[in-house]
Write a structure and sequence with these properties.
elongated, 204 residues, mainly alpha, 56% helix
Length: 204
């Protein structure tokens, strides 16, 4: 349930207000704020429907005795073993890239809440296979950062274009217009995005 104060703030935008009035934003687990786990999950969910991704990720977790992919254990699997649960070759490699980076940099021992959104984006996007969208999902859902705007997300972008009639714009002009549209949503652009996903029934 979205806090009433956030609903009131977003409803000040007359175009956006009907979404707030009509839609419920589903609960989403934060997995105890576990950035490593959330990053692996986001990679597994890339470019797949929620149902298909959930099935594959569940099979992946079942490879581990306690269903937790500790970096050391994950790195012991072969690509073939990881692909056997439905992961693509690239995703299998990306998951192990994350495990190796966290292991080498000792990232499971740091306090992510002491770092800004920008610092976390810079750190995690240095991992091959981890892009802005993947880290933005971690920021929004694992760390519960309230003001993330994932413009690379096709649903968020598409719904904004449709709602605010921006179909004729392209490239930099479109991005500029999208940022302008979202400015009144600050400091709750994460929640605005969640309403946009809810308006399409997107399972994340």
């Amino acid at each position: 349930m979205v806090d009433a104060a956030i609903q009131k703030h977003l409803s000040q935008d007359p175009v956006f207000a009907p979404l707030v009035a009509q839609l419920a934003v589903p609960e989403r687990p934060d997995f105890g704020g576990d950035v490593y786990y959330g990053l692996l999950r986001s990679i597994a969910y890339q470019q797949l429907s929620g149902k298909a991704a959930g099935t594959i990720f569940g099979r992946f977790l079942a490879l581990f005795p306690d269903e937790y992919p500790e970096p050391e254990r994950l790195l012991q699997f072969s690509e073939t073993e990881l692909r056997s649960v439905g992961l693509s070759r690239s995703k299998a490699n990306y998951l192990q890239n994350v495990a190796l980076h966290f292991q080498e940099q000792g990232l499971q021992r740091i306090d992510w809440n002491s770092r800004s959104d920008e610092e976390i984006l810079r750190e995690l996007t240095t991992i091959k296979g981890v892009g802005h969208w993947t880290v933005e999902m971690v920021l929004m859902f694992i760390l519960k950062r309230p003001d993330v705007l994932p413009l690379d997300d096709l649903v968020v972008r598409g719904q904004m274009v449709a709602l605010y009639e921006l179909e004729d714009l392209r490239g930099k002009a479109l991005k500029s217009a999208l940022l302008e549209v979202a400015e009144p949503w600050r400091p709750y652009r994460t929640y605005a995005s969640r309403y946009l996903w809810a308006s399409k029934g997107t399972d994340l």
